[in-house]
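Reopening: Phosphoribosylpyrophosphate synthetase still failing for me.
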Amino acid sequence: MDRQMYHYATVSRALQELTDKGFTTDFNLEEDRIKGNPDDFTIEHIYRYEGETDPGDEATVYGIIAKDGEKGVFVAGHMAYAENDAARTLHEISIRGREE
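Support: Ran it again with your exact input. Result attached.
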């Protein structure tokens, strides 16, 4: 899996760049779809933002492509992996992609 990792200065800059690349769907609004059908998604881009002074500012931005070609983003905050099933699912997809 040929995934791109980008390092932008801010999360908003990463989101703008992904939007410019056609990633326009907000998959945060479709968490149940991700949780229920993880094999329908691939992660094309991953952007990790680490807050310089506050760990609460940490976030991961995923550029996702659905099987039907729909492109979008999912933003997972610092505590998302502990609190959000969709964020955990995307993290697992990311790890599974590295093993393939």
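The first helix runs from residue 11 to 20. If you still see a failure, please send the error message rather than a screenshot.
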